[in-house]
């Protein structure tokens, strides 16, 4: 429940009796009461915002500006801060705002009331922010314990390591700790690549975003933990409905792939709590780098990659081999990580 920022006030220059019979005021009261109460539908919608709109979406900026840009353009009554925005900045706000209202339609339906009362808009934003963060926290809580027991993994400062590769990794870990090797967001982790194909340093997009671990994480998040490592195809059985079913997902999007990739990376790193920055590795930059890969819908890589994801996810009947997943931190996997990172950084 969002903290109340003010006591509900009466419409200026209108007696209390008139407000009680004013449909407009009565509807406003219903909106604010809903925010103060347990609105399960809006709560569920808000919890999914970071998954489908953008993991690092500035919810306050997008809603507070978008709700005026789309409604006030013809009236030329835009906020001074909005007027100073470049066309690209304004378009970015509008694009994300449209995604948010598609997910939470009541924002657009009640936009007039929120524009008339900034405090009510503030309540709305704080409500959505809280439940969006709760949704991310729940996803991290689902992944963290599962990722740490895949294969035989032990924890070292900054990462989780397969025990069989510990001795081979020690020199590299020391170089990373001493900043001789800098791993940043433009160094794609090896788990983003297919386990069944050789990494090609001359074509880094080849087999990119087709990693078995990444796929398993995505399925764990969106189609349910039971589907992540299934050895046979078919329905996952009873239990709670998956997020894919609840939110009626019909296709995989770049944003949902990037969301899974960031949470997958966080789940096998050494961070105990959610932080956007892990040393020199920026999670927002990592997220954006993945989304930016899909900047051209006519690019064959764009088409083929989304087709691959939709083949293995949308049907919800994917066969994921456990023995392949167990190799995501194998000697071959870790050697690939070192081989990718080392040539791209000065020692």
UniProtKB/TrEMBL annotation:
InterPro entries: DUF6698
Span list, region Disordered: 1-29
UniProt cross-references to Pfam families, sorted A to Z: DUF6698
Basic and acidic residues composition bias: residue spans: 1-11
Protein name, per record: Uncharacterized protein
Originating species: Hermanssonia centrifuga
């Amino acid at each position: 429940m969002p903290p109340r920022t003010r006591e509900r006030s009466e419409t200026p220059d209108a007696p209390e009796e008139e407000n009680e019979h004013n449909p407009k005021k009565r509807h406003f009261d219903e909106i604010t009461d809903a925010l103060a109460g347990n609105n399960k539908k809006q709560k569920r919608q808000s919890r999914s915002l970071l998954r489908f709109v953008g993991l690092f979406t500035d919810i306050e900026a997008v809603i507070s500006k978008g709700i005026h840009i789309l409604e006030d353009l013809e009236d030329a009554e835009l906020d001074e801060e909005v007027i100073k925005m470049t066309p690209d900045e304004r378009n970015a706000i509008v694009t994300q705002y449209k995604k948010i209202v598609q997910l939470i339609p009541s924002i657009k339906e009640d936009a007039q009331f929120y524009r008339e009362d900034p405090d009510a808009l503030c309540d709305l934003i704080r409500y959505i922010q809280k439940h969006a963060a709760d949704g991310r926290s729940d996803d991290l809580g689902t992944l963290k314990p599962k990722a740490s027991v895949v294969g035989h993994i032990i924890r070292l400062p900054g990462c989780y390591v397969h025990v069989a590769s510990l001795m081979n990794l020690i020199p590299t870990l020391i170089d990373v700790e001493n900043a001789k090797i800098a791993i940043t967001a433009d160094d794609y982790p090896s788990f983003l690549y297919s386990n069944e194909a050789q990494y090609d340093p001359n074509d880094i997009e080849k087999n990119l975003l087709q990693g078995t671990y990444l796929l398993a994480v995505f399925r764990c998040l969106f189609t349910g933990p039971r589907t992540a490592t299934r050895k046979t195809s078919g329905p996952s059985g009873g239990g709670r409905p998956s997020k894919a079913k609840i939110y009626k997902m019909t296709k995989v999007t770049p944003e949902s792939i990037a969301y899974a990739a960031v949470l997958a990376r966080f789940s096998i790193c050494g961070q105990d709590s959610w932080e956007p920055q892990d040393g020199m590795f920026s999670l927002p930059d990592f997220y954006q780098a993945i989304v930016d890969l899909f900047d051209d819908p006519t690019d064959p890589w764009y088409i083929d990659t989304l087709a691959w994801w939709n083949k293995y996810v949308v049907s919800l009947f994917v066969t994921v081999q456990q023995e392949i997943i167990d190799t995501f931190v194998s000697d071959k996997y870790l050697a690939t990580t070192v081989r990718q990172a080392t040539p791209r950084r000065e020692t």
